[in-house]
Design a protein that fits this description.
There is one protein chain. The protein folds into 3 domains: 208 residues, Endonuclease Chain A (Endonuclease, Chain A, 2-Layer Sandwich), CATH 3.30.870.10; 166 residues, Rossmann fold; 185 residues, no CATH class. It is α/β, with parallel strands linked by helices. The strands form 5 sheets. An 8-stranded mixed β-sheet has the order 1-7-6-5-2-3-4-8, with helices on both faces. Strands 9-13-12-10-11 form a 5-stranded parallel β-sheet. A 4-stranded antiparallel β-sheet has the order 14-15-17-16. It is extended and about 105 Å long. It is built from 21 helices and 22 strands. The N and C termini lie far apart (86 Å).
Length: 630
Amino acid sequence: MSKRFFTNEGENTLLKKFAGVFASNPDIERFDALVGYLRASGYFALRPHLEKVPLIRIIVGIDVDDQMARHHRKGLLMLGDADKTLAFVSAKLAEDVQGAPYRRDIEDGIRQFVADVASKRVEIRAHSTKKLHAKLYIFLPTGFCEHKPGAVITGSSNLTAAGLGVEDAASNYEFNVVLHDYDEVLFAKNEFEKLWNEGVSVLPEAVKGVVRESYLRDDLTPFELYIKFLIEYFCPAIDYDPNSERDLPKGVKSLSYQGDAVNDGWLKLQKHGGFFLADVVGLGKTIVATRIAKKFYYHNGFPNHRSHILIVTPPALKENWEAEMDRFGLDDAARVIHNGSLHKIRDPEKYDLIIVDEAHKFRNDTADGYDLLQKLCKTRTKVQLPNGEFARKKVILISATPLNNRPADIRNQVLLFQDGKDSTVIGNLQHFFAQRIKEYQVATTRPFLCRGDDGWLYYVKGHGAGRQALIAEWIAGNLGKRLGLPIPDFKQAVIPAELIRLSAREEIADLGAGTGFASQLIQNTDELTYLYIGQIDEALRAKILLFDWWTANGDRTLTEHGGNPNILWVHRDHKPYVIDHNLAFDQTALAEFWSQHIFLESRAAWTPEFRQSMESLMRAALQELEKWWA
């Protein structure tokens, strides 16, 4: 293995070589560095090794090619421009500070760098006539001579966090050599001195000015920080676009809130492929959508590509949309159809932008109209992208009544313009909405504590839980009882209409009149906590796990961080009760069953004998299924 040459692979970083040189030469009195560019954000890593070095000199290069080209265009000789050199170095330092990661050690390092420059412990010069490709690091000890030669490192590594090897080391390949021969170090020292004398001094005030104009300044007020936050968060949405105002047809007023909506909607259309335009009646949603459509038309490859726009609207609004398209000069590009004519679209790939008015009418994914609209929105356009793929459609969903009854309603509409597994909003939308739907089902199936005509107290779920949930409770409860699970006694309850009509409690409407599911109240219970899982008999845990697997019930989770066990615990008797099976018989729950179930580890107890015994009980229970409805 070479003792002089080193790369940045493994532990061979430039920073570690620096540490070795400083450790071997504790009396270094000057450290000189010649670099292509300087990154103050990497100073934090190097600073501890420079603690005892009284003088640090750094020569940085600039992009002289750009300056030389400007001089040649003007017919001038390139003699070096000190002001432009300083401006270039300052701009690069400012760019580095602004782009540095928000970490305390990096921030402290930048501040220390500025302090060292201010005290003239660090001196910086920039070369204005040569593009410096070389990287040179010279370590000069006190009494530099043939007997104390110090060291020189040269190669590809810059004086940056990546070059030093403390960040992004894997993405760079560095190749350097360290030399300790006196003649080699002396040659490097003399070359450095020549370049140093030709350089332009970067004064401490210039470096301090860079920090003073950055987020590291000390005099920012809370209000200024708030304004900066608004600018960064809303970004181009707050920019004024004069063209959008001058392009309004005669008779259309320029309203600032509509202009804001156009800017924000346009950004969302570009970022997410679609958005909801929701506002009350009378505020000009049609005009806002039309203005965005016109902007899209002229920004989507015009004039080489003439975009086609499809507007889907209720029959009563069709003429109004046609009039707006005509008024804004989009009548040749737009086609307006009523929402009952989606089946007549024979060439869905023709359209680049879909606008859906009264979009809340497409909340239900079981309706034929939704399937037709989704197919239309998901069909790629005829525009071929540089990567060979065809462009996705853009979608604008308009509604004056954007409230949705269920999480599935909003999911269905979002999926008209988003990829369910790889969205631009929150990643996996299908997983996100599966959780929200489960939470909604739990919330809407909350039971009411009622006293039955037999005198006992029951938790009762009614029509608010949904027919499927009530059936799941009844079947799963009967199966569980026959498999030997400790399930509270339950019955079918008849809920009289008078109880609902005469009750002073508004929420009782969720219970509803008719047939419900009633689970008897168990006194002195709490929800099972993670601490008591181990007190449940292992065989019972295995039974519950197998029962939930057979009934596709994924609604029994619990970790040290919490969960939804759907098991009650009687502390006095150390006895569990298994409850709540309204989400059973849902095959989609099985996808995450083996990563979330409370008794996941009890699968080891599923011996062949155990499975055979449980299967016999299940077969016997299923033969009695018809009796349960009598």
